[in-house]
Amino acid sequence: MKSTKLLLLLTLVVTITACSKTNTSLEQEQKQEAQASQQTESQQEANAAILAIRDDLKQLKREVAAIRQAVTDIHKIAMDTPEPTAKPLPAELALNLDGNDPLLGSEDAGIAIVEFSDFQCPYCKRFADQTFPAIKKNYINTGKVRYIARDFPLDFHPQAQGAAVAANCALTQGAYWQMRDSLFSNIRDLSPERYQQLASELKLDLEQFKLCSSDKSHIEEVTEDQGLAASLGISGTPSFFIGRIKGDKLVNGRLIVGAQGYQTFSTVIDSIMAAP
């Protein structure tokens, strides 16, 4: 009897133990399946991302190829296009030395610089701020160079012509160069009201300044300078003719275009002075 009970007990224990092992195995299998499913989803997402990157790379390669082809085409066009013939500089350029144009320097100077400028041009301001002071110190103040300022307001600078007239009206009261500095200092805020304010700050006769500003003859003077610049082939500002003074003319002129540094001007001036 005891043997029978013991056998039943062992059978129950084995059964319970076996059931326990089976449940555990099932849970592990379920976890493994879940993990495998997650890994599969992650792998699918990674694969999709890789495919997207590959597509992007293919698109980039196509775009780079198109850019390279465009550069090749542009280069071919540039090589096939003949260079424009440069307009020769005039043998001589008439200088207005009677005071109608702003000028600096000694009457005995042998070299002249004729500037064509625009008061709304940032490159003209850069030249006026960075290069002109050294030219003035080393060449104008020392009697070597006479400097003549002329106007070339560009069409796409709507305030440039009015600013040129304001500067020329200041010239009639002996304050051109002071007004020039003030205009460049206010290059982003040019207007008739500003010109009046600057004239007041320079202690000019405001009534005379107003009458001058409305005088069409001063606009005509600016227009004449524009026509002269165009006839010389000038299309941008600032531009400069540098040459020897012969009577009331500048001869053997050299052209400098843009806000070049002091060394560029110094080299040209010195070479002209050294020439026989």
Key structural traits:
276 residues, alpha+beta, Glutaredoxin, 2 domains, six-stranded mixed sheet, 8 helices, 61% helix, elongated
Could you walk me through the main structural features you see in this protein, from its secondary elements to its overall organization?
This protein has helices at residues 2-80, 122-140, 160-171, 176-185, 192-201, 206-213, 216-231, 262-274; strands at residues 92-94, 103-104, 111-117, 145-151, 239-246, 249-257. The protein is α+β, with helices and mostly antiparallel strands and 276 residues long. Helix 2 (122-140) links the parallel strand 3 (111-117) and strand 4 (145-151). It folds into 2 domains: 1-81; 92-274, Glutaredoxin (3-Layer(aba) Sandwich), CATH 3.40.30.10.
Quick rundown:
This protein has helices at residues 2-80, 122-140, 160-171, 176-185, 192-201, 206-213, 216-231, 262-274, and strands at 92-94, 103-104, 111-117, 145-151, 239-246, 249-257. With 276 residues, it is α+β, with helices and mostly antiparallel strands. The termini are far apart.
Number of strands: 6
Question: So how many helices?
Answer: 8
Could you give the order of the helices and strands? Answer: HEEEHEHHHHHEEH
Shape: elongated
Strand content: 5-15%
Q: Which segments are poorly predicted (pLDDT under 50) over 5 or more consecutive residues?
A: 6-10, 12-21, 77-87
The CATH topology of the largest domain is Glutaredoxin
Count of folded domains = 2
Biggest sheet, open or closed, and with what strands and sense? 6 strands, mixed
The percent of residues in helical segments reads 55-70%
Distance between the termini: 144 Å
The CATH superfamily label of the largest domain reads Glutaredoxin
The name of the CATH architecture of the largest domain is: 3-Layer(aba) Sandwich
Widest β-sheet, arrangement of strands: 1-6-5-3-4-2
GO molecular function: oxidoreductase activity
Domain Thioredoxin: 83-274
Keywords: Coiled coil, Disulfide bond, Oxidoreductase, Redox-active center, Signal
Protein name: DsbA family protein
